[in-house]
Amino acid sequence: MKANAEGDLRSLIRSCFCLSKASLRASPFKNFVTLFLTRKDLEQTNYITSSCNINNNTVYKNGKPLFANNDADIQAFFLSVYKRFEINYSRFYKMDNLSKLGWLASEILLKDSFKKDSYSPEDIGLILSNANSSLDTDQKYMAGVADVPSPSLFVYTLPNIVTGEICIRNNFKGELSMLSKAL
Q1: Residue 35: band (very low, low, confident or very high) from pLDDT cuts 50, 70, 90
Q2: Residue 45 pLDDT
Q3: Nearest to 36 by CA among 169, 183, 149
Q4: For residue 15, is pLDDT > 80?
Q5: Which of 20, 104, 111, 121 could form a disulfide with 33 if both were Cys (CB 3.0 to 4.6 A apart)?
């Protein structure tokens, strides 16, 4: 995918959204595309130089499998990825599944392949897309509403929270967007 100064940002976002077409019958975490674009990228002709895909309990970077744990449920899988890549971040344990997925993909994607110190925090933007918004957390929250609604879970019913988690971790302060496919 190309981005240039004459290109329309809307068509760029549409192109990014088209990269992540997950079946609605599949797990809400089947496909998740993470893209990091800078203003400099939009001003020059550039290409996506790195990708991370977490699918079917396997982590891929640039199409090559890095780690698999087929015997784990989703929570155990995310924890095994976190430990395998020796990540240390206390906020990880409070995140919902969507945030953990996007955050882990960003950690793997940015590790050794993105020099964020070459840019000011305001020049780094983030575009994410998924197929089912925050459906997983929404269902958990609604199940808990009958008793006592959880404020700490409520915040994760917003699908763009994953972008906030990534930006907080990396000090990104540019534009961001979270695109979700309509049901």
Answers
A1: low
A2: 53
A3: 169
A4: no
A5: 20
- The DSSP secondary structure of 70-85, one letter per residue, reads TTS-HHHHHHHHHHHT
Does any domain span residue 139? Answer: no
* Confidence band for 166, pLDDT divided at 50, 70 and 90: very high
CA distance 129 to 71: 27
Using the CB atoms, write b or e for 17-44: b if 16+ within 10 Å. beebebeeeeebbbbbbbbbbbeebeee
Mean pLDDT, the chain, rounded, equals 75
Residue 146 located in a structural domain = no
Structural domain tally of the chain? 1
Give the integer Cα–Cα distance in Å for 61 and 6: 30
Does the residue 47 lie in any domain? Answer: yes
- Domain region containing 91: 9-133+163-180
Decide if pLDDT at 107 tops 90. Answer: yes
Distances (CA, A) of 97 to 1, 5, 15, 36: 29, 36, 25, 21
